């Protein structure tokens, strides 16, 4: 009737407005002491409990059970029997918790709680229990680790660190905060066997992650993620675009003749609304953006050269296969770009070894960016998740159930 191993139904009652109450009892006459591991059939006390179970159609189901307390015949300590279908100190079955979690992952806490089967607090406890069980599981066969972060609350400077298995595109952990100590705590829990097996760590351009990887995962090659390097170059290119636009706007105001003003306005028209035309990958431009790029190149030699250098830098990583070719390509680019990308050049020199390490196995956290996008989607749809712990639980469980 119940499909619960180790129990039998001894009675059944149906109460209008409440549901079905099934009285159940354990088939076993003995239990194992959780202190010394000795079997005992010496009954000490009875504790009656009402446990929520899965509905039968439209009817709520409650299990009236006796969680017996035995006294160990060896150590003489009292202990409660373990009921396989319900966690200790919980008032709902494991299968009800699993079903509820699946519903929450497809919806939100408040909507599921409104169905009346379980409360919001019970749902939060279910999520916490399941997430805690997942958190105890250490990574298996982890070779390439990605470390990144996402904004917990956009615009407020609150970030959480994200750890991922790059080979399996798997979320490993979300950490409230991104300090070295917070991440260290998780890595220590993984243990030396896991850490010693990691061969590469892909990180963004934060020195804290670099020193963390060097200290905690000494056998691994640290790789600077190419997308973060590219983001630095795009940021500097966009900064130059804004600078030129402001300069032309100021010159228009100071123009002394209509001809001079018209000439400056033509330059401004070419630069205005050109952000995506110069920052997007060239092959991804639509026809309108292609036309705008031509306009920019016609009115600004500096932006034309910087855009060309940006594309050349990207091609080094897109098309270069060998480490030696990567070294030569980066060296040539740095020599040419020194007049145009001063800040990016400085960053690349500081991170040269880690950037060059990309060409060993072409390790990139492009996988990390994809997972981060999924995490942001979960965050946006997480109505009812009022704190970080609930958000983390939902993310970990979402990967467990759906990936």
TrEMBL record:
Residues 32-75 form the Transposase IS204/IS1001/IS1096/IS1165 zinc-finger domain. Residues 145-394 form the Transposase IS204/IS1001/IS1096/IS1165 DDE domain. InterPro entries: Transpos_ISL3, Transposase_DDE, Transposase_Znf. It comes from the Bacteria. Pfam families: DDE_Tnp_ISL3 (PF01610), Zn_ribbon_ISL3 (PF14690). PANTHER family: TRANSPOSASE FOR INSERTION SEQUENCE ELEMENT IS1557 (PTHR33498:SF1). This is ISL3 family transposase. It comes from Chamaesiphon polymorphus CCALA 037.
